[in-house]
Design brief:
The protein is an alpha/beta fold. The protein is built from ten helices and 15 strands. β8, α3 and β9 form a beta-alpha-beta unit. Bound molecules: NADP nicotinamide-adenine-dinucleotide phosphate. NADP nicotinamide-adenine-dinucleotide phosphate binds next to α1, α2 and α3.
Length: 331
């Protein structure tokens, strides 16, 4: 196949960004070690930022977003991979300034690819995608600083979204009592099905932002939203416990003081999935395919086709996405 279909984002003379599906040629892809036939991709919040011209994500247009891709190697110039290998590529520059997984072909450096781990299908790897991977990174990092199962509730914010849904399901499967923080009262049943013990509404999590400290409540936090909700959660951590911070859908600004850190001995942990070294990426994928394989994985999936993406991008931008948009890229 020398031509393939891809989502195409163009910047008009008026500065507006438009989305359509186009036919492209493999010859137009950048140089790289691996040419990959993309079978599945997934929709992440960052893809919506790319598709709407966020310069922190994508500088040059026209462009094909898609920070996630799972597929089969078609051509390899790397000793580590051969034609026919199943691989997963997430993060690095994929879908940012390199044509991404919303095209049926990508060409990337071999150092960006992870062999599909035993225990996951290509489709399952994209039900997880960057969002699920990041949720697992958060739990992995919290575990490493200490997350006892009997210390109390673990809060997940933005719980019905991609990172949040996987974090709820993973923590619940591991035996933690999970408080799911959400702005979507109508998704309570979904969140309970994933394993949430309790639903906490977004207004409650945002209350008390002006106070220096809040009553100790959480044994751990996975925060996907940032802003006042993140720092309220830090102010509500139990003595000595930790919050993992990975997102900014509410705000990148954090109204912080040092008080929770110096009076409650708590930790704020940063989590990045993009530049995480490839060895670490393999380790986390291995956990997701093995000991952390989610029993509820299929419940998270919101199936999409390439042609659905222009509309689905609005859904995720408006905070209405539930679970994980998994994109079947096959013809
Ligand atoms: N650090 C990394 O490497 C990394 C990797 C992946 C994602 N991220 C970031 O993590 C965040 C979540 O990504 P995602 O793909 O899970 O997005 P998503 O599917 O859109 O989920 C975000 C969720 O946040 C909640 N939300 C939306 N707007 C909000 C607002 N104004 N205030 C408070 N909560 C709001 C909603 O859940 P509820 O209605 O349930 O509250 C929404 O579903 C994004 O900021 C993304 O950029 C970072």
């Amino acid at each position: 196949m020398t031509t393939f279909r891809a989502l195409w984002i163009e910047k008009g003379d008026d500065g507006a960004f438009t989305r359509r599906i186009v036919e492209r040629s493999v010859d137009e892809l950048p140089p790289g070690d691996l040419l990959i036939d993309v079978r599945y991709s997934s929709l992440n919040y960052k893809d919506a930022l790319s598709a709407t011209g966020n310069q922190g994500v994508t500088r040059d247009f026209p462009h094909t977003p898609g920070i996630d891709a799972a597929g089969v190697v078609v051509e390899s110039q790397s000793e580590g991979f051969a034609a026919g290998d199943e691989v997963v590529v997430i993060g690095f520059d994929l879908g940012m300034n390199t044509p991404g997984g919303f095209g049926q072909r990508i060409r990337v450096p071999a150092g960006w690819a992870v062999p599909l781990p035993d225990g996951l299908s290509l489709e399952e790897s994209m039900i997880l995608g960057t969002a699920g991977f990041t949720a697992a990174e958060c739990v992995d990092k919290l575990e490493r600083v200490g997350l006892p199962r009997d210390a109390g509730e673990v809060l997940v914010t933005g719980a019905s979204g991609g990172v949040g849904s996987v974090a709820v399901a993973l923590l619940a499967q591991l035996g933690y009592p999970v408080a799911a923080g959400t702005g979507k009262a109508d998704q309570a049943e979904y969140l309970h099905r994933l394993g949430a013990a309790r639903i906490v509404d977004r207004e409650t999590l945002a209350a008390g932002a002006g106070k220096p400290l809040l009553p100790e409540q959480w044994a751990g936090v996975v925060d996907t939203v940032g802003g006042e909700i993140l720092f309220n959660a830090v102010k509500s951590l139990r003595y000595g416990s930790s919050a993992a911070c990975c997102g900014l859908v509410a705000s990148p600004q954090v109204p912080a003081t040092v008080l929770p850190f110096i009076l409650r001995h708590v930790n704020l942990l940063g989590v990045d999935s993009v530049e995480l070294p490839i060895g670490e990426k393999r380790r986390i994928w291995g956990r997701l395919a093995g000991e952390w394989k989610l029993e509820r994985l299929r419940d998270l999936a919101r199936p999409l086709a390439l042609d659905d993406l222009p509309g689905a991008i609005d859904t995720i931008l408006e905070g209405r996405m539930v679970g994980r948009g998994v994109v079947d890229m096959r013809d």
